[in-house]
Amino acid sequence: MPRTAPRRAKLRVHLENSRKKPAEKEYTLARFKAAARRHPALAKQLEVSVGYDGDITDDELKKIDIMLGVPPDRARLKAVAMRLKWLHCTMAGIDSLLPLDWLPEKIIFTNNVGVHGAKAREYVRMAVALLHTRLPHMLANQRAHKWQQIFSPALTGRTALVIGLGDVGGGAARAARDLGLKVIAVTRSGKASSLADRVARPSQLDRLLPKADFVILAAPNTAATRDLIDARRVGLLKTGCGIVNISRAALIDHGSLCARLRDGSLAGAVLDVMHSEPLPATSPYWDVPNLVITPHISCDDADYTTLTLDAWFANLARLLAKKPLRNRIDPARGY
Amino acid sequence: MPRTAPRRAKLRVHLENSRKKPAEKEYTLARFKAAARRHPALAKQLEVSVGYDGDITDDELKKIDIMLGVPPDRARLKAVAMRLKWLHCTMAGIDSLLPLDWLPEKIIFTNNVGVHGAKAREYVRMAVALLHTRLPHMLANQRAHKWQQIFSPALTGRTALVIGLGDVGGGAARAARDLGLKVIAVTRSGKASSLADRVARPSQLDRLLPKADFVILAAPNTAATRDLIDARRVGLLKTGCGIVNISRAALIDHGSLCARLRDGSLAGAVLDVMHSEPLPATSPYWDVPNLVITPHISCDDADYTTLTLDAWFANLARLLAKKPLRNRIDPARGY
User: Fold this and answer.
1) Would the CA dihedral through B272, B276, B282, B288 be positive or negative?
2) Which residue ranges form the domains of chain A, and what is each CATH number?
């Protein structure tokens, strides 16, 4: 049978992985094929390769049109990846990739915003509820074999201050609403949102922090948010306040936070992020009283790669239709 | 000014306390007066006394019309309290008072159902969320200074089996719904309820237990519920199931439960109730892996006495209006 049209060359897609990441975060050929079966019309236009820790050769890298995952030697992209038109970062937070001076011009750079909100909502519901119930104190009592009743008042009607109102922050705000809390969000613009009872700007933080029963950090880590809750502002937190961080450790001063956890003037903190991850066994943070540490799992579903690949295929459809892609990173803002 | 009507004698109310209970559960004169200010018309008809551990004298007990709290020497009620017409138990669970052979005839006996539901809802949201997130495992890792990422799939759509659907069980069912779970309730009658997707009878438990992602015990402790989840039924729980008990320890076999917590075949258990309370420091339960013990605080608000007294005043209004009281205990059922 004669061909009726010239066959279009397939798009070369490279899945770039890090061996340091857990198996759940690995973009294997098997996982890609499973996603491809859900998007057959798009998938048949692709040719896929998989690599680890930047082991793709220069010869191969030259031919790549789309890359999912950012390789460790980012300078190679500008120097070698001449065909690359779309680079997708499989994380929402790209702060570890800043500054973006390595990014080739005219490349579309996207992140994984949208894949984290639902899980963030679940985590924040847990974290706020356990802080309100004074569970960190009860867990210490359990270790000490001590039965001491601590009763908490109603959670409904308390105030949560949610810093950031993007995908992750939106999940946090929804969680707070699920629990019957009043939500005050803090965003760069201060623009009103249906997710919050009130949206304020960072400049209003000094007045808002002393009113919050819970402070939930959910903003991206940028020059504007780094050390946002510094030692002075940690001092503004009211007695019995609970802290949740599902953003980055850089947003809050850990030294003064731990001092207030040790002296018992806060209900506790639930931190999913640390300055150094994995947190070394020798770190003093492990043993800080009233501190619950979780290993950076707050916003990632066990089916994270599935959710990521489905969102990626949806964006691929937009690329092929020459529509603007979702989750494009603004190099100037850094998110 | 001449009296237009003979002044009615005031009703004598006695507030009976136990020194073993925490200060938050004490019915002091100050707390009663604060409640009285919220119900002035009713309060002016009352004369109030306060006692501890049954220290009221026979002379005084003879004159009491209404008692809030059950004294330790319950036999004295039949023998001495000749005017007593209403006895109110300030707990929801009256299993420690069974059998009710000490109860004088024709006395109205009520319990504190209705005061626990909102708090039970908060607690169950916390407990289910933390079990789903595998927090017991992460807490053990934190103690061992170990960073190990464990990712959980979406919580939405999983199945909670809620045993009991009264005040406390209703709170548990609402909590499960808040988290997006499918709710199967088990009640004596099996009658449909808007709080659950399905209501089953206890006879169906063997088929339901293997399907449950979470089992939440929230039924009263009666002859019918004692050892309801016995060793055989603990064996029916599916791998990764999470257990929450906010009812009484007698409902579930602790030996086989702890065996399954030790071998890691359950996600964990959050138990708010123990056979012996306060749990002695020498108890082996404190150290069972994947077990979170809270000190019987799941259903009690820090403002418990306020909520209790307001509900009690509402019932007093019904008594004075000769309407049937709420929360009357059926001596035959035992709740």
Assistant:
1) negative
2) 11-115+304-320 (3.40.50.720), 117-293 (3.40.50.720)
